[in-house]
Amino acid sequence: MSWGWVHCAALLAAATALATSGCKTQPSGAAPAPSGSVTAAAAAPAASSAAPPAKPWFSGNFSGEYQAKLAPVEIKTGAVKEWAADDGKASSGAGKLSLQIGDDGLVDGSAEGALGPSHATGKVEDDTLRVLLAPSDNTGLHGTLVASRDGDGFKGTLEASSGDSLRVRSAAVELKKQAN
User: Fold this and answer.
1) pTM given for the model
2) Which of 3, 21, 34, 74 qualifies as a FRET site for 51, CA 20 to 30 Å off?
């Protein structure tokens, strides 16, 4: 072999060794691996900002009062005749609602007053509260409350009726958040 050929082969071997050991390249499309100091610096803010998530605005206890009154029922030909006979005195008057709303938006509570004692269940979704009132005895009315956010509370309308739907009542409701 001639000296030029050996010299060329040695240079080629040295260049290959230098390329594979001195210069680290990533495979095509792979992200470079972070250095230890960068990883530690990125982890430090994440650990310090891992505060517990804030409670939703609606989480807590709410209470309010209502004044139930005869709900307007359009009486046409063929309507239930007892609706026309309802003078609005029974199941009308003052009442109170007490609700507990969990972080998940689930509602549990109670009502008492003119509509009778009731158990309340429901849910808050976005800024809307929906509650069903189930009477605790045979004299109470079944009801639904739909209310929208109003500051830190809710404002809406409670619609209720007797089991036979002969007594129909309505009430404006304003629920205020209670201090814990």
Assistant:
1) 0.70
2) 34
Alpha-carbon span 142 to 154, nearest angstrom:
20
Give the span between the Cα atoms of 92 and 160, in whole angstroms: 11
Q: Report pLDDT digits (tens) over 122-166.
A: 999 999 999 999 999 988 999 999 999 999 999 999 999 999 999
Helix (H, G, I), strand (E, B) or coil at 6: helix
CA 140 to the chain's CA centroid = 30
What is each CA distance from 79 to 71, 87, 141, 166, 169, in whole angstroms? 15, 16, 21, 11, 17
Tell me the domain boundaries of the chain: 60-177
CA-wise closest residue to 73 among 172, 179, 168: 168
CATH code of the domain occupying 60-177: 2.40.128
